[in-house]
Amino acid sequence: MKRDTSPTAAFQPAAPRGIVEGLVYVFERVMPDPFVLSICLTFVVAVLALLIAPTGNVPTLLDSWYTGTFGILAFALQMILILALYAIAEAPIVQRGLRALAAHAQSACARCAAGGVRRDRAWLNWGLGLIVGALLSREIARRVHVDFAWLVAGSYSAWSICNSGLSSSIALSQASHGNALNLVEKATGHVVPLAETIFAPFVFIPTVLVVVVMTAIFIKMHPKSDNVVAFCDAGDANDDTSSADPHARSSDGTATFASRLERSMLGTLLLLVLGVGYLAMEWRENKFDLDINTTILIFLLIGLALQRTPIAYANAIRRAARQTGSMLLQYPVYGGIMGIMKGTGLASMIAKAFVTIATPATLPVWSYLSSLIITLLVPSAGGHWAVQGPFVLPAAISLHASVPRTAMGVAMAENVSNMLQPFWAVPIVAIAGIRIQRVMGYTAVTFAVSLVIYAAALWLVH
User: Keyword Transport, does the record have it (predicted)?
Assistant: First the structure.
């Protein structure tokens, strides 16, 4: 029995029948809205900081919270701008491409194969994995009777390998001479090449295993037909973009200067010249590199080119912007959490606790386990590394443990914890147009499986 429902509408699921359905059932009833969850986490972190942190006094806590809250605003805007990539999906040529790709997904195996493609994109670049997964999920769900939350969860599960790929901030920073986060170089004078991190067997083998194993598991755990909640594309039906074009016609029916300017490609061409010119100059003077800002810029330029006119692009962004409200609230709150964790010394205390009981053989695993905890509260790889790195790396050097393995233990745990931390899931569920609770019920399975695979690889693969 098919049950279509709006992605944003409340859903009352049937009683759970199995482990996976039970997880989905529990998450829908226990997990609050991500903004409310971020407030709850703030309370927990604040209490812990006051009770056990080295400098957990009220003035330090308040100052750290304020600094973190407003220190994350640039990053928050970056995440919101990612939603501007939605404008690319609305371009006619992209719509045709997505429809052609989605048309091949006519079975559970084909849908999961598409999920494997999205994992390839996540390994290449975390932003590509995030956006392609959401957009392709919508197109597949329009054509195939499939549980939409399951499909989106499969897309987001691609993030279980992104910190082991070519956009891993920890691996890239340790391989970059003079990088501010290259803590290995600061401590030893040497950089760590990618051959010793993301291409090393202890990272590459579990990354491949996670892709293969989770693809098979997702095929098996698709809900039974009577529990399927299909996609309902009602989001844009009532969207009135004409209100954004009040000067389209004058009283005598002729086009106005304003409407002609809005529909002129000159504005688009100007921005394209500026953007492409900057990228060409930057990549000519320095080596080719994709960070978060250049990735966003590239997709903004692509969206402009595909939409052709400024008003078409503005209307597409206006539709995407309806999804950003929750993000606007959540990221500053998480910034406050990160500020408290770092400013009061709570994060460093957690890292030190694991380091003190480590041996040369076990330090990478203890680094991994401590990172699992810290990531749930500091869900930013760069910020996380800045907190945990200064404690695990000196320990690795003094114990003569593997520095690359210890550093990547932190990164691999980021992969795992992101499956339970909604911080990074917010953009993909916003683009897809679905409530996050049902999605997290499925990604909890990815968390459990990848947790074991990455831990075993750190311990056993050499």
Answer: no
